[in-house]
Amino acid sequence: MARRHRPFRTRPKKIQNHRSPAGVESVAHRLAEAIMIALARSHIPVTRSELPWAIRHGAMAGVIAGLAFAAFEMAASAVMMGGPAFAMPLRMIGAIAMGSEALDPGYPLAMAALAGVAVHMMLSMIYGAVFATLAGGLRSGLAIIGLASVYGLALWLINFYLIAPVAFPWFTEANPMMQFVGHVFFFGSVLGYALWRSHEGLLRRAP
Q: CA 177, CA 160: separation in Å to the nearest integer?
C-alpha cells in the first residue's frame, strides 16, 4: 500500500518559531512597563535623617566612579592617540582650574596632572552626592545602576554640549564615542553599583 504524501508537514512548526515584529514590539512594551513598575515600587523618598548618609556614601561612590572613569579615559587616549596622550585627560581637566595653558606640552605635567586629579575628584564627589540624593531610597540594584547610567549620560550631554562650548572649548575636541562610553558605563554604571553595594551593607547591618 502506497504511503500517502503529506505536504507542508513541518512548515507550520517553522512558522510558529518566528516571532512577528508586532510580537517583538509587544514584548518590548511589556518589558518597559515592568521596569517602570519596578522603579516605582522600589523607590522610597529620602528623609532628613537619611540625607547625610546619602551625601556621604554618594560622595564615596563618586570617588570610586571617578577613578574608574579616569583610568578608562587615560587608557583609551593612549590606545587611540599613542603613549604621550596618556596624561592628556588630566591636562584637559586640570585646565579647568589652571587655564588653557595647561594643555601646552611645555607646561609642567606634574602641575597639570595634580590640578586635574584635584578637580576631577572634587567633581566626582559632588556628582556622586547629588545622584545619591536624587535617587532617593532606591533599593533595587538594577534600578540604581540603570538610573546612574542615565545620570552619566546626562552629565556628558550637559558638560560637553552646553557648558564646554562656552567655558571650556578644548573639551569639544574629545572623541564623542569615547566620552559616551566613559560617562555612561565607567562613571554612571560604576557609581550606581558602588552606591547599591553601600545600600546592601547598610541593610545587612540593620537590626
A: 12
Mean pLDDT on 56-85 = 96
Half-sphere exposure (Cβ direction) of 128: Cα atoms closer than 13 Å: 32
Query: Shortest CA distance to 159 belongs to which of 147, 150, 168?
Result: 168
Query: What angle, rounded to 10 degrees, do the helices at 141-158 and 21-42 form?
Result: 100
| Angle (deg, nearest 10), helices 51-81 and 109-134 | 140
Name the pTM for this structure.
0.76
Is pLDDT of 198 > 70? yes
Helix (H) or strand (E) holding 149: helix 141-158
Residue range 108-152, pLDDT digits in tens? 999 999 999 999 999 999 999 999 998 876 778 898 999 999 999
State the DSSP H helix or E strand holding residue 91, giving kind and residue range, or none if neither.
helix 88-98
Helix, strand and coil content of the chain, in percent to the nearest 5, comes to: 80, 0, 20
- The answer to whether residues 197 and 151 touch, using CB atoms and an 8 Å cutoff, is no
What kind and span of H or E run contains 30? helix 21-42
